[in-house]
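Justification of computing resources. Each target in the renewal requires a structure prediction run like the one illustrated here; the chain below, 215 residues long, is used simply to show the kind of job we budget for.
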Amino acid sequence: MMTVEAVAEAVGLSANTVRFHLDRLLREGLVTRQPARPDGPGRPHLVYRAVAAGAVDGDGAYRLLAELLAEGLVRSGDARAALEAGRCWADRFVEAHDPSIGGNVGAEEDVAAVARVVELLTDGGFAPELLADERTIALRSCPFMGLASKRADVVCAMHLGFARCVLQRLQDAARAAGRVPHQMEAGLVRLKPVLDGSGPCLLSLPAPHTAHHPG
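Resulting structure tokens:
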């Protein structure tokens, strides 16, 4: 069970924004609300608890929660919020996997890093395909396509933040293990969304040793 303030701190949104979304989740039957045990004088705090997964429509609950989080990012008015959410997603995702560089033994670090990015995107449900230039990754599936059609600015920015953070984490892991890290600048990763069904979204990784250029 969590208070509004605890949820706000966990997701990085204001208490008022979190309260708005929790009220909607409460109306949808996805959370319950009750007074906390008194711990002193005054009115006890209200605490929220998620309804057991087996008691709700999992797909519907997931979609609603994703929409609420996307709306929260839009309401925050911070253009970097979605990128940061993607970075947080990558942090949690990579933490649950082996963060070491993949690829064949003896492969160059940059080549191996690209291969590892493809592996992690596969695990994330993007059905990636590395194209002939060995720097562009076609994302042939999107685990958030339904939401992306409504909030492309948020969802695509989250995916970009995810890819950039994965590259950074691979560099950090290589350094921590005493290896030479890959030389791709994470901040230069680019994403070209294609949401009309005419083709896959394209994730472009920078060439190694590329100097940083803002934009």
